Amino acid sequence: MELDHTQASRHPQARAGRFVCLSLADTGCGMDAARSAASSSHFSPPRKSAKGSGLGLATVYGIVAQQEGWIEVSSRMGRAPT
Fold first, then answer.
1. What pLDDT, on a 0 to 100 scale, did the predictor assign at position 75?
2. Do the beta carbons of residue 49 and residue 59 sit within 8 Å?
3. Residue 29 lies in domain
4. What's the structural domain count of the chain?
């Protein structure tokens, strides 16, 4: 995909240019606004009810950041994140 300066200005880590865009969706129940905002911080603690280590997003964030990329999360309660 190619982002112009206007599109890139919508995300603080984005910049204009040509990029690979990987889009994922899951079957979860979605996140409220506070959880969605916290998901952009790779230091956010995992939920107590979550199974596993809670390090999946931190790992993805690290890989993406090393490649000068960024992650955008879109989610609403009752709907799976995209």
1. 73
2. no
3. 24-82
4. 1
- The structure tokens 């905002």 sit at 37
- Rounded to whole angstroms, how far apart are CA atoms 1 and 17? 8
Q: What's the predicted TM-score (pTM) here?
A: 0.58
Rounded alpha-carbon distances, angstroms, from residue 68 to 23, 50, 57, 61, 76: 17, 29, 16, 10, 27
d(CA 37, CA 64): 18
Query: Does 32 map to a domain?
Result: yes
Distances (CA, A) of 33 to 5, 9, 17, 28, 37: 27, 21, 29, 15, 6
Residues of the chain with pLDDT under 70: 36-55, 79-82
